[in-house]
Amino acid sequence: MQRVEGKVCIVTGAASGVGREDALLLASQGAKVVLTDVNQEAGNQVAAQIGENALFLAHDITREDDWQRVVETTVQHFGRLDVLVNNAAILAMANIEDTSLELWRKVLTVNSDGYFLGCKYAIAAMKHSGGGSIINMSSVAALGGLPLFCAYSASKGAVAALTRSVAVHCKLQGYRIRCNSVHPDGINTPMTQALIGGQSVPQETLDQDPMNRMCAPRDVANAVLFLASDESRFVNGAEILVDNAQLISGIYEPR
Length: 255
What we know:
9 helices
């Protein structure tokens, strides 16, 4: 079943990790996908893997002119925009005492400002073509206390609040644009592996532990696919947890 047949999607940070998995899964389910990233070589490789229904664009999500160009090019190339997956982000490990103002600003500029710009320009394109779905990647860090990720937690908290504001605004304006956030715990990607010494651990090994906090990129992509599809047509302003009940278990420190 082609669950997003004919939909035009932008996926940021699509050169690797969750963004790559999002793009591959959406394309496999019938979508036309615009992949964006600062890593042009890897991004082009993923687009080539998908084929004619994919387009790669170099994209710095902190730049307003880049967002304008990406959305305009998407509409010119594929005729419309139906789905935005705000996925690109950076991760920095530092508690409140160790976080410098420079690091704070760097993380929030990418993870919060970049998502604000994405929502702003996606709405401008979607509201004239019948609506759409905006999917913002947040984190359990936005909802619980993760002391080792001060700036990251704040940035993802801003994304969660932004999502609710966008959802209500678009509803009240009658745009038929839904906006939801996805909140994973750990994801088995190169970005998170770098925090544990760059060790690559097979997902099968992780999944042997029922307390496992590290999901596979496909687990997150499956949630993104649902939110991109018409199956979620009445899901708006929701916070979708992909965390193996970690948040509600009350256990935040590694065992």
